[in-house]
Amino acid sequence: MNLDNKYRTVSIALITMMAIGVISWLVTLVTTPRWGIMVTNFIYFVGISEAAIFIVVMLRTANAKWAKPLFRLGGLITYSFIPIAASLFVVVLLGQGAFFYWIGGEGSTNPWLNPLFFTVRELLFFVLFYYFAYRIFKISMDNDDIEEPGIDRSLLIRNVPLLIIFVVHQSVIGWDLAMTLYPHFLSTVFTIRFWVTNVYGGFAAMILIMAALKRYFGVKTIGKEQFFNFGNLLLAFSVFWIYFTWADFFPLWYANLPEETPAIYGVMFGKEFGSIHTLRLALGAIPVVILTVSKVRRNTTVLQVLAVFILIGIWIERYLMVIPPLVMEEKMSYSPMIGVTNILLSVGLLGGFIVSLIFAANRYESIIAREPKPDHGHH
Question: pTM for this structure?
Fold first, then answer.
């Protein structure tokens, strides 16, 4: 790698930040359970990073010619985060006994709640997804500027399975690391909302990364058209997010079953979580209203600000999926959203996410620079 001094200094600072975050979490783990913080960040960062390649594969499959300069970018984001994703995955698997209420107790005889089956299914879909993601990235990286039917077929053969595996993989994560934390809680819409939210956040993250590549790495093929179209897609998925959030909430509220209502009322009206829930809704609603204005979607600066709002809102949503049930089940003591350990670990993993991108972008800088220009004749 040929990182210049500026990026080398930034990378060292980010790696140090990640190390401090992980160490602070491990230190607190000795005295008090803090597994919920790790699970929150695992489902957040893995979901966003996986959504990146899902987005570009979706655009490639739809033959979105304007998105050609971005086809390799989504794979780069997912590929760069693999080492951190794998490390977090191992930590979560090792800690399952500390945050699942049903291990060794209620539900242990249920095959789905069997710890071994939990490990096997999580590992299976994790490996499957990243295998297809890696293969797509490598083929695209080597041949994206070559128009050959054989290459297109090779990508298509892998594109469609990846779209399916992403949905299944994220659904399994949603079931196992969020919905299952509530005893007897069941929602048929929950996992749809879970992976749609990841794609929503993936669009927001890619807008920020596109802007960074354009500014700091001099990628000239990313222009106003790509930002505007991503703004349109961000608006679409913001509407999807609202729809599936409502579709998940309404049946639980209407049925008012005592075994299910803690999943919504404990968050909405709990003294620790009520204000956080309100903040999460505000951060989700604000972008929807603002993005309806066409001029906003053409303004890259405003898009970046909204992307930050969206990513913070999604992190809060993940926090509210994981922390409340663990507190209710006494698997961990209350962990303030703005707590020292929480902030250090979350910001540290964000630093790890960024530094992995810096290293990957530096490694493949020449390949990014030769990305093909978009075909303006087809959309």
Answer: 0.88
